[in-house]
From TrEMBL:
Protein's name according to its UniProt entry: Cysteine desulfurase NFS1
Region annotation Disordered: where it falls in the sequence: 1-30
Keyword Isomerase: yes
Taxonomic lineage of the native organism: Eukaryota, Viridiplantae, Streptophyta, Embryophyta, Tracheophyta
Enzyme Commission code: 5.1.1.17
An MF annotation (GO) of this entry: isopenicillin-N epimerase activity
Natural source organism: Handroanthus impetiginosus
InterPro entries: Aminotrans_V_dom, PyrdxlP-dep_Trfase, PyrdxlP-dep_Trfase_major
Domain of life per record: Eukaryota
Keywords: Isomerase, Pyridoxal phosphate
Amino acid sequence: MAALHPCNGTVTTQNPEPEPQPITPSELRSEFSHHDPTIARINNGSFGCCPATIIAAQQRQQLLFLRQPDDFYFNTLKPSILQTRRLIQTLINADQVDEVSIVDNATTAAAVVLQHSTWSFFSSVFQAGDAVVMLHYAYGAVKKSVQAYISRAGGHVIEVHLPFPIKSSSEIIYEFEKALQRGKANGRKIRLAVIDHITSMPSVLIPVKELVRMCRDEGVDRIFIDGAHAIGNVEIDVKDIGADLYTSNLHKWLFCPPSAAFLYCKISNELLDLHHPVVSHEYGNGLAMESAWTGTRDYSAQLVLPEVLEFVSRFEGGIEGIMRRNHKAVVEMAQMLAEAWGTELGAPPEMCSSMAMVGMPACLGIKSDSDALKLRKHLRERFKVEVPIYYRMPVEGEVDSMTGYARISHQVYNVVEDYYRFRDAVNKLVKEGFTCAVLSD
């Protein structure tokens, strides 16, 4: 490649960067050889995964800091965080890099947003009784955060109760519209909507664009999308989605080490006063700068995104190809399990991401959240299968209904034998006449 010499104007020839070589099956196995080989690990959704090359890149960053902390702080950390923000800006189609802040995780991002809403109540910008709308299936930590920040400040919280199993996105839209109308009853104003892009448990892909549009039509002040599972799992275009705020974890489906996440904030006068809940020396310099330094800690997980993008470029189609193949594989495995157990999926394939809910045989006797947790432990300890189990409370009048669902994930390290082991373990339990009642706490 020809380039103009900056000093004398002569043309020199530069060697282009070599193209990444496609990853081979043996290299892929090596990247995840630190995983426990005895476990069928079909729960990428909870904690994600990190390839060996990214772990090595993180360790290089850690050693750079430990070698000369002052130099790292003054000359490496801020430009490296800025580089991560620029890469995220491109990945999510944000207009400006100043709209992107790097935080530890989606729970931290929720604290940033909800703390701002609390101040709005305390400063009388919001009035006592003004409403916040959120999904009943919102992540537990986010629901607790709403309780801690909104309810205690005098806000009225409205939960959108969604059906499960679910047949189509129209059911979500219908229930959400009803909740918006409840929120506006008696002259109340809806100040904030918290909407999951992909619910955690049960896992369902939510029609966020449609719900954001409904919120705009109903005059909701601010819209926050909790996309904790989203980046690396489904496409994110924040301008197309149209929400004011959006967060996602980089360590769940985008191969970063824990913990790293981003918070997108569309530039507007009302939202410029967001602050990180940890106040440090950067307070008052904007959320992105406040988040980039919260005191002495390990920031290395937030600095390896360039290496992550190089890693995913070795797969056919890059991250988009990985997402397509993960979705196709998890649906196929879910359908295989449902057929083997005589059950059904908790949502249609188009409402699954790289995770899917599969009904478990009713004879297992999953009758509570405690039963679901005990069965998960039993599967791990006896059969070496790691998979979350969800308890669905039966609707009044249901008899012998499916009350237990497994949330399976698919990531690049998974193989079909992982799901066969799970299938065979459940079939063995059924054949033995097992029920959750025999398990002790």
